Structure formats: structure tokens, C-alpha cells
Amino acid sequence: MSVVSISMPEVLLEHIDEFADEHGYSGRSEVVREGTRTLLEEFQGQGVDGQKQMCTVTVFFEYCQPAVQQRLTGVRHEYDGIVSATTHVHVQDQYCMELYVLEGITEELSGFVNAVRAVPDVQTVKYSITSLNNVPLNQAIES
After folding, report:
1. Tell me: the pLDDT tens digits for 14-43?
2. What digits encode the pLDDT tens for the residues 51-95?
3. Which of 15, 69, 92, 116 is deepest in the core (most CB within 10 A)?
4. Are 57 and 125 spatial neighbours (Cβ–Cβ below 8 Å)?
């Protein structure tokens, strides 16, 4: 097995250590391997490649971080063809939340999520995908 060196904030490292202890992992490496496998499998094996999807993406970052806001705006413009809506909210005077509503094929949604995750100082990225192929049009209108 190869040895890899990575950099991460001390707080995240502490969370990994706590997680490993609480869930019976042998150590940091096992947690990171499991997390990496999960991340890589997120968009694979869902049987939805090439299909039209709706996606919400929620992003948290610390308040008063103009560089983060600028980078997120850049990502939003880069993926303008799939972004249906965005909302910016202040949370507890400490955080900002960006909510994106996307419509596109799985590969495009994956690209957007990965681009947002790559923005430095973003603290949390969560998303939810809903297939448009499984919802009959008349049912979607009635709901």
C-alpha cells in the first residue's frame, strides 16, 4: 500500500481521530480511505449517468469571507447553464449559507459539486439529487 501525505486543518484532524475512536476504526488512515471510497462512489453506480436530474447544493462558510464568496460566484458563472436559482443567507451572525438549485445531467452536477468543494475555506457542502426521469409530468405539476 502506498503512503500519502496530506495537509488538513488541525480541527479536522481532531474530528477524524474522534470519529475513528467512536466508530471502531483502526486509525486515521482507515477513516480517510473509507471517506475517499465514499466520495468517489457518490456519483457512480447510481444508474443515472446521462439522465436529467434536479439537485440542491447547500454550502456553509464563515461570514465576512469575500474571497470565498467571489470563488463561489465564479463557480456559479462557470456552471450557469445548469444553475436555476441561488440564495444567500446569513446564519447566526457567524456563517453564510449559499443554496443552489441545479438542473442537468449527473456529470454536470458532479462537476459543480466538486468545484464548490474545491473552494478554499468552504466548511460544508451537502447536496441532494432527484431524478426527473422517474417523476411523471402530471404528478410533478399536481404536487
Report:
1. 989 998 898 888 989 988 888 887 777 665
2. 788 999 999 999 988 899 999 999 999 999 999 999 999 998 899
3. 116
4. yes
Q: What phi, psi does 64 have (nearest 5°)? A: 65, 45
Instruction: Note the pLDDT tens digit of each residue in 94-140.
Output: 999 999 999 998 889 999 999 999 999 999 999 988 877 655 544 44
Q: What's the Cα-to-Cα distance from 122 to each of 25, 60, 101, 115, rounded to whole Å? A: 27, 6, 18, 11
pTM, rounded to two decimals: 0.66
Starting at the earlier edge strand, list the strands of the sheet with 122-131: 83-91, 95-105, 52-62, 122-131
Radius of gyration of the chain (CA): 18
Whether 53 and 109 have beta carbons less than 8 Å apart is answered as yes
Which grid coordinates belong to 126?
Answer: 451537502
